[in-house]
């Protein structure tokens, strides 16, 4: 067996081991300390005598460095953002509380306005009913006044007719007598021409 065959055997074994350690690895899981430890363990066990395996080992070592950088960045973020998050949450809670209070005030004002609106609607309904009754009363009185005016006209006409007839009845006989007397007198008196 020559060196290239031995290298091929080690390379095949190294590929299997590296594939197994890379299985399920992602950028997100790369920052996990268990994953970094598995990468470090695998890198440490790879032989460095062969160029092809040295390239794989170099890539694994670079992944280990990146894993450390990611973990450090996330740790720093968690440490610094914890206070910022707490502060942001406190501010958001204060804002929420203020808005809830404003909402309660608005709801109370709406209830007050609705009560006033109901009172005004009731008052308007009462006024509309009063107006309707007054219009009915006016219509009835208007009709009664017209009937009374007609009755007055009819009564006046009848009274006038009766009075004229009475006058005619009372004056007819004396007028006839006066006419007759005048005619008789004219005939008795000589005409002076």
What does the model show?
The protein is built from three helices and no strands. It is mainly α and 193 residues long. The chain has two domains: 11-81; 90-175. The chain is rod-shaped, with a radius of gyration of 63 Å.
Describe the structure concisely for a colleague.
89% of the residues lie in helices and 0% in strands. By secondary structure, the protein is an all-alpha fold.
Order of helices and strands: HHH
Annotation, overall tally of beta strands: 0
Shape: rod-shaped
Structural domain tally: 2
- Cα Rg: 63 Å
Mean pLDDT: 87
Helical content (DSSP H or I, runs of 4+): over 70%
Low-confidence stretches: none
The secondary-structure class comes to: mainly alpha
How far apart the termini lie comes to 197 Å
Strand composition percent: under 5%
Q: What can be said about the biggest beta sheet?
A: none
| DSSP helical segment count | 3
Task: Give the topology.
Blueprint: H1 3-22, H2 33-45, H3 51-188
Record keyword descriptors for this entry.
193 residues; mainly alpha
């Amino acid at each position: 067996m020559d060196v290239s065959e031995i290298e091929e055997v080690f390379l095949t074994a190294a590929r299997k081991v590296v594939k197994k350690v890379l299985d399920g690895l992602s950028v997100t899981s790369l920052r996990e300390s268990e994953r970094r430890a598995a990468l470090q363990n695998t890198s440490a066990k790879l032989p460095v005598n062969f160029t092809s395996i040295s390239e794989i080992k170099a890539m694994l070592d670079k992944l280990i460095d990146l894993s450390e950088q990611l973990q450090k960045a996330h740790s720093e973020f968690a440490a610094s953002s914890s206070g910022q998050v707490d502060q942001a949450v406190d501010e958001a809670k204060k804002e929420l509380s203020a808005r809830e209070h404003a909402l309660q005030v608005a709801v109370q004002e709406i209830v007050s306005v609705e009560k006033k609106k109901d009172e005004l609607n009731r008052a308007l309904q009462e006024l509309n009913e009063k107006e309707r009754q007054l219009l009915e009363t006016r219509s009835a009185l208007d009709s009664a006044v017209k009937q009374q005016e007609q009755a007055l006209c009819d009564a006046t006409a009848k009274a006038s007719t009766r009075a004229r007839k009475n006058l005619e009845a009372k004056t007819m006989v004396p007028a006839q007598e006066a006419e007759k007397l005048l005619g008789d007198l004219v005939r008795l008196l000589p005409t002076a021409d």
